[in-house]
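[Meeting: bench + compute handoff]

Bench side (C.D.) handed over the final construct sequence. Compute side (W.E.) agreed to return the predicted structure before the next meeting so the bench team could plan truncations. Sequence as handed over:
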Amino acid sequence: MNSEIKSIWTSAAVLALIVYAGAAFAQPPGGPPPGTAGPSANGGLPPGGPAGGPFGPPGGGPPGAGGPPSAEAAASLLAIPPLPADAPQPSPDPRNFDGTWYHEALLQFQITTDMFGNKAPFTDAGLKVQQRRVKSLKTGTPFINASALCIPMGQPWQMDLNMPFHIFQSKDRLDFAFEEYHGLMQVIMDPAKALPAAYMGSSVGHWDGDTLVVETTGFKDGLWLDVDGTPTSKNAKLTMRIRKVKSDHWFLEVEFTLDDPTYYTHPWSWMRDYSWRPDMTLFHEYNCELQTGAKDGVDPSLVPEPQD
């Protein structure tokens, strides 16, 4: 990728994230940057409503229906160059995820539906937290969150960002290293060697055929699923089913399932796709503290969130 174009896109995406995460609260003239949509813009989905995946057919469909957009469509939506025709290809081994991947879909500022188009099944407590967080953004008194504190914000938010991540895979583990926030998800294949509780939880993986199943529990704190603050408690279980697919281009299809009785009446799932992007292997430097724009690292306009 041309370094100047990537730099422009990276800056725009970071600005969009900061605007809605609470570090700054004024959009640039003309609305959100290319490739993003505000909370009122259909939840960040393309016209037509939710579907099995971010780009499934209008009106909903089965998991993964429609798959990701073509390389050309993704490039147009996100204002990034398509992958060069002579770019290196990933291993044809369906169990080998090693390499760089990128979320080539519009950023959803609020995950409002599951992968079938059903509304998120909030409990009364979950709906209270979600509505309070959205209201805090609208009134200009947003709550302090993991993003503002430069601590890991959890897999759903981290993996929704339009930034590359690299998977380093070995027999015993997979490390997902993210450009944004220097995020790191470590998936241990031996349950006996599972890592202790952490902000990103403790992730253990196993293979179901050619699908990698990652089960994460032991979150050190509750998570925001997205930049608007759709809630998850620290007692939640997050399961990701990841498989490598080849259509007109290679991509990872990930089905997220959240089981969190504190905030939801039953487990629910959503889909994401991540395209193969070996041209993004060299990450840009990221300094979270400087990105907040605040002298001491935390924007003074942010306020502590009520804990009831």
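W.E. noted at the follow-up: The chain has one domain: 3-291. C.D. will use this when planning the next construct.
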